[in-house]
């Protein structure tokens, strides 16, 4: 960790003046705008269309413009953009011509949390859930921490808020290396695998970025790392060599905070957390350091995420029993195995999983929830580059389901890559249904094959989430919602 980056020195809120967000309705941008409004910063922004998030920000005092235009930044002193904003955006061009301060989203967040002790949660998977868990735990333990999460925390109803406690919990995004703009006191790394190769190029470059992130910890900071994941365990080893303090968690014997093999019943899970003797509470002894943890979310991956939250609680001096009780109230984050409804006894869930490891975790959780019934999946690959790199791994993960319909690739920020289609995955599948270029036919095929007690799970980071409503509508229609003529011609989905 010798190649430590120069820490980003964030401007003060007073230096920002009036702040304008380009694309204010996005999950990350709206979070920062909400926090700055809570801090008394004058905020304006623009977005392509109205949305619930945009309307909520307007109600909080933001001046919101629908559509992007140069005149929208006339009163601004600082412009905030995300990686998704193109160089020819009229507001960005106008801000450059006017000499305004221009910040990346992560730099704006760094400014918003510059006076607090920062808990930054990073990792290839699990960031949103773990950040949400830590936030709910802190609030439930009486710590009114500020927070910024990449999805709505269901029990709090928002994805961000400005709190009164001098603690800030932030999801730290590695996809564009923007997490290197933060100054964490506690850095949580849930796992570390190759991803975002469209940006980094190699797995080694991804690992180097995480090493740089950990190097930003101050002398009295701490890395909280998952001991069960090979990548984060190696990161922890290197951090120790570099003189950083490290706390590990996991199911393995060597973890500082150790989990006993958990169990699950439907949407719930539980385990025993073995804590270091000196942190387990007054009167603790070697025989009494085991603490029960009960969660309202399924899956071993969520038990692991909760252990990370426990580690943060210990670092912040929060009573362990209060922290565990608060974690027991956590009921999920948006698009993380989120229940969408039920029809004909078939439950529909939605999950943001878009990497093979995440898909595997989601389907294992689905198996627990289905309790012996079948699991049907509507999967949408995200990015051509990710599909090309991980087609075989996606197929292996999806084989955990009983039936899988795979939609066309969601391109997001990428242009098509010749020869890269969803069939790279489906030709390796060992379960029906396979490639489904027609979403309506896929919805029919999945619902027609589902029986009471089964689960249908929409999976992916694109617009596959929108098909949850169509699945529910089809489940509530006797013929599955597909015209008889279309069914006679075939369901349009094939392997």
Could you name the CATH topology of the largest domain?
Answer: UDP-N-acetylmuramoyl-L-alanine:D-glutamate ligase
CATH level-4 homologous superfamily of the largest domain: Mur-like, catalytic domain
How many structural domains in the coordinates?
Answer: 3
Largest sheet: 11 strands, mixed
Net shape: globular
Average pLDDT, to the nearest integer?
89
| Distance from first to last alpha carbon | 47 Å
| Percentage beta strand | 15-25%
Rounded to an integer, what's the Rg over CA atoms? 23 Å
CATH class of the largest domain: Alpha Beta
Features:
495 residues; alpha/beta; Rossmann fold; UDP-N-acetylmuramoyl-L-alanine:D-glutamate ligase; Protein-Tyrosine Phosphatase, Chain A; 11-stranded mixed β-sheet; 6-stranded mixed β-sheet; 17 helices; 34% helix; 22% strand; globular; disordered C terminus
Topology:
Elements: H1 13-16, E1 19-22, H2 27-38, E2 43-47, H3 52-59, E3 63-66, E4 78-81, H4 90-98, E5 101-104, H5 105-112, E6 117-122, H6 127-140, E7 146-153, E8 158-161, E9 167-171, E10 186-189, H7 197-200, H8 203-215, E11 222-226, H9 230-241, E12 245-250, E13 257-259, E14 263-265, E15 268-274, E16 290-295, H10 300-315, H11 320-327, E17 338-343, E18 346-351, H12 356-370, E19 375-379, H13 384-398, E20 403-406, H14 423-426, E21 433-435, H15 439-448, E22 455-459, H16 467-475, H17 484-488
Parallel strand pairs: 1-2, 1-4, 2-3, 4-5, 6-9, 6-10, 7-9, 10-11, 11-12, 12-13, 18-22, 19-20, 19-22, 20-21
Antiparallel strand pairs: 7-8, 13-15, 14-15, 15-16, 17-18
Helix pairs in contact: 2-5, 6-10, 6-11, 8-9, 10-11, 12-13, 15-16
């Amino acid at each position: 960790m010798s190649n430590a980056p120069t820490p980003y020195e964030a401007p003060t809120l007073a230096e920002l003046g009036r702040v304008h967000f380009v694309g204010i309705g996005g999950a990350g941008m709206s979070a920062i705008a909400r926090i700055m409004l809570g801090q008394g910063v004058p905020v304006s922004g623009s977005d392509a269309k109205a949305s619930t998030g945009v309307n909520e920000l307007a109600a909080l005092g933001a001046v919101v413009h629908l559509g992007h235009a140069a005149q929208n930044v006339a009163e601004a002193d600082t412009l905030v953009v995300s990686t998704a904003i193109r160089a020819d955006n009229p507001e960005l061009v106008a801000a450059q011509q006017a000499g305004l301060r221009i910040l990346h989203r992560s730099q704006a967040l760094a400014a918003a949390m510059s006076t607090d002790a920062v808990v930054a949660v990073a990792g290839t998977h699990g960031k949103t859930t773990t950040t949400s868990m830590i936030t709910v735990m802190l609030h439930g333990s009486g710590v009114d921490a500020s927070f910024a999460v990449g999805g709505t925390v269901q029990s709090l109803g928002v994805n961000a808020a400005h709190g009164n406690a001098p603690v800030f919990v932030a999801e730290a995004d590695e996809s564009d290396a923007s997490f290197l703009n933060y100054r964490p006191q506690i850095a949580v790394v849930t796992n570390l695998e190759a991803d975002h190769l469209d940006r980094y190029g190699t797995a080694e470059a991804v690992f180097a970025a995480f090493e740089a992130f950990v190097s930003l910890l101050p002398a009295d900071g701490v890395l909280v790392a998952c001991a069960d994941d090979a990548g984060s365990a190696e990161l922890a080893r290197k951090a120790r060599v570099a003189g950083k303090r490290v706390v590990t968690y996991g199911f393995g014997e060597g973890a500082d905070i150790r989990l006993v093999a958990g169990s699950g019943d439907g949407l719930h899970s539980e385990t025993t957390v073995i804590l270091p003797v000196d942190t387990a509470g007054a009167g603790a002894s070697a025989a009494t350091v085991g603490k029960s943890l009960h969660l309202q979310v399924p899956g071993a991956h969520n038990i692991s995420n909760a252990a990370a939250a426990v580690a943060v609680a210990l670092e912040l001096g929060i009573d362990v029993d209060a922290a565990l009780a608060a974690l027991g109230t956590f009921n999920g984050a948006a698009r993380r195995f989120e229940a969408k409804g039920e029809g004909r006894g078939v439950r529909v869930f939605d999950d943001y999983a878009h990497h093979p490891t995440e898909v595997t975790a989601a389907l294992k959780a689905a198996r627990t929830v289905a309790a012996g019934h079948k699991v049907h999946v509507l999967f949408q690959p995200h990015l051509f580059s990710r599909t090309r790199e991980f087609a075989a791994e996606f197929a292996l993960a999806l084989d955990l389901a009983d039936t899988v319909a795979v939609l066309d690739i969601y391109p997001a920020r990428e242009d098509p890559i010749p020869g890269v289609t969803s069939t790279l995955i489906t030709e390796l599948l060992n379960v029906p249904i396979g490639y489904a270029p027609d979403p309506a036919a896929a919805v029919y095929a999945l619902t027609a094959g589902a029986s009471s007690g089964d689960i249908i799970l929409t999976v992916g980071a694109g617009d596959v989430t929108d098909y949850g409503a169509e699945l529910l509508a089809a489940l509530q229609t006797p013929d599955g919602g597909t015209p008889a003529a279309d069914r006679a011609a075939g369901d349009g989905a094939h392997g």
